[in-house]
Amino acid sequence: MQTAQTTVDPSEVAKFEAMAAEWWDPKGKFKPLHLMNPCRLDYITRQIAGQYGRDLTQPEPFKGLRLLDIGCGGGLLSEPMARLGATVIGADAAPRNIPVAQIHAEQSGLQIDYRNITAEELAAAGEQFDVVLNMEVVEHVADPQAYITACHDLLKPGALMICSTINRNPKSFAVAIVGAEYVMRWLPKGTHEWHKFITPDELYGLITTAGLTPVDRKGFVFNPISWQWSISDRDLSVNYVTASTRPA
Ligand SMILES: C[S@@+](CC[C@H](N)C(=O)[O-])C[C@H]1O[C@@H](n2cnc3c(N)ncnc32)[C@H](O)[C@@H]1O
Questions:
Q1: CATH no., domain 10-245
Q2: Angle between helices 144-153 and 200-209 (to 10 degrees)
């Protein structure tokens, strides 16, 4: 299935263009993603290791896997995936993110192929991957179904997509918008639009309509006392993640 329709929402991409210089500042505008990284990397690495039978205690356990980090931003997830041995392509619709990500990878001694390109353009070019990381992007696109369908096309048969986003309910409005943008001021006001948040059932609907098989979903839960994120089987009320596969 090929998709030609653009998934880019220019006003969303402009927000990330304006913040591009801050990607690697752990106290800057992307502080929430930096704080969340250990927890989401734990989830991502276990899912990939499980799907491909890799031993995470071995050096470079993801060697031989071709991984796309779609909406890669500054490369907060691309870099650890490259360290684990994956061949990483980081793609983002915001042009300014690309040199920021490239310079940081160079400084870190990592080889990552960063490109200013969208999911649908990569799919139209016939690119395919063993893993597509699709983290915190679907709530920023113009057409979530076209976007997830493009992600389906980017997976080899039997390959894995991991997709995280934010639930839509009164609690997520209070926590992800009022709390993060107005009270904690972690993110600039207007970074998120509540009506673009997606419930887990809606995301499963998008995934299955695209032809993927959902295999797992978990919550990412922030503890304001320990200031740490953890993975929850039950609490998907704000941040959550799904794993799905393309049928072989
Ligand atoms: C919240 S950031 C997430 C960055 C990264 N995935 C992470 O979790 O660390 C969302 C990113 O998606 C990018 N983006 C938005 N719409 C996109 C689209 N249609 N195609 C590709 N990237 C897009 C933005 O430019 C931004 O860098």
A1: 3.40.50.150
A2: 50
